[in-house]
């Protein structure tokens, strides 16, 4: 659970806006990677989502790991609001792609896998 914070907004430029939160300290540590998750919004609604947890190696713009979730079928502004992210299953390890087009292609595959779980 955490407050949605501003990111670099790269996800939205490739069609996958994310809700970024700092991974809370003091809970179970999980390996960096992409996960199928449920994102519970402030109003209690739960949506399927994919979450990247890690250092975002393709864009290389963070010094600390970030949990960034692309919430499926959702487009409202969540900045400053608290969301709860429930991990369902790991989809893959975090990978550095050569460019944003390769990343975009993989995110589409990750979403397909998320919806199968």
Folded structure, characterized:
The protein is of the alpha+beta class. The chain has two helices and six strands; from the N terminus they run βαβββββα. It has helices spanning 10-13, 100-116, and strands spanning 2-3, 19-21, 33-40, 46-54, 66-71, 82-93. A six-stranded antiparallel β-sheet has the order 1-6-3-4-5-2. The longest helix has 17 residues, at 100-116.
Oligomer: single chain
Helix proportion of residues, in percent? 10-25%
Order of helices and strands: EHEEEEEH
| Strand-residue proportion | 25-35%
Report the span from N to C terminus. Answer: 22 Å
Structural shape: globular
Sheet with the most strands: spatial strand order? 1-6-3-4-5-2
**Low-confidence residue ranges:** none
Largest sheet features:
6 strands, antiparallel
Calculate Rg over CA atoms: 13 Å
Supply the key terms.
alpha+beta, 18% helix, six-stranded antiparallel sheet, 117 residues
Write the layout of secondary structure elements.
Layout (H helix, E strand, L loop, with lengths): L1 E2 L6 H4 L5 E3 L11 E8 L5 E9 L11 E6 L10 E12 L6 H17 L1
Antiparallel strand pairs: 1-6, 2-5, 3-4, 3-6, 4-5
Q: How would you summarize what this structure contains?
A:
The protein is an alpha+beta fold. The protein has two helices and six strands. The protein starts with a strand and ends with a helix.
